[in-house]
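Sequence design from tokenized structure. All designs in this work follow the same two-part layout: the structure record, then the generated sequence. An example of the structure record is given first.
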């Protein structure tokens, strides 16, 4: 079997890179730069799907004949997207809003090679335990929440505040690996990427 070219990851996310490396999938990183402003009345699931497709399309045009993987993640509560915090005060407000309640993490993934395109979105319910103001202030001061949708990282210190999840853990990290396998299978490249010699 011919050794396939590495999968192009259209993201600079260290979490996505780590998840792919755990699967021993060879990747090249070429982040996509697209406008991530939500459209008017766009729900969280539709937004992440649109952005994952936009990112894949941008990089696929740059690398004809190569498979590109793009992804987008957002956190939502009561159907309203919660993006990355704009300040420490914003991060504290978000964490106060999430604590003691359920929210959703939506991640969309898109695989594209030329005109071939496969995409899906996954949802995970996450429940935070109640947090004290002191815990929230301490967590924000660690700096971890500052570049994360929803102002937390489940795989980091933020995991201390998660009471439970329903769905994919890797989805909350930004790449639902179980669903990625489905897309790789549909695209006919699973064996070449995962089981290469």
């Amino acid at each position: 079997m011919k050794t396939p070219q590495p999968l192009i990851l259209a993201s600079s996310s260290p979490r996505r890179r780590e998840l792919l490396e755990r699967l021993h999938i060879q990747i090249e990183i070429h982040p996509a730069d697209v406008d991530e402003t939500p459209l008017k009345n766009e729900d969280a699931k539709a937004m992440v799907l649109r952005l994952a497709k936009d990112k894949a399309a941008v990089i696929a045009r740059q690398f004809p004949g190569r498979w590109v993987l793009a992804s987008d993640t957002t956190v939502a509560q009561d159907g309203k997207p919660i993006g990355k915090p704009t300040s420490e005060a914003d991060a504290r407000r978000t964490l106060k809003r999430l604590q003691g309640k359920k929210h959703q993490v939506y991640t969309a993934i898109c695989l594209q090679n030329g005109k071939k395109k496969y995409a899906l979105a996954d949802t995970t319910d996450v429940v935070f335990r109640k947090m004290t103001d002191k815990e929230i202030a301490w967590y924000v001061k660690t700096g971890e929440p500052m570049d994360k949708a929803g102002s937390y990282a489940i795989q980091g210190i933020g995991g201390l505040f998660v009471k439970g999840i329903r769905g994919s853990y890797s989805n909350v990290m930004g790449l639902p690996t179980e669903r990625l396998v489905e897309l790789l299978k549909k695209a006919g490249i699973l064996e070449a990427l995962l089981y290469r010699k």
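The first strand starts at residue 7 and ends at 9. We note this feature because it recurs in several other targets discussed in the main text.
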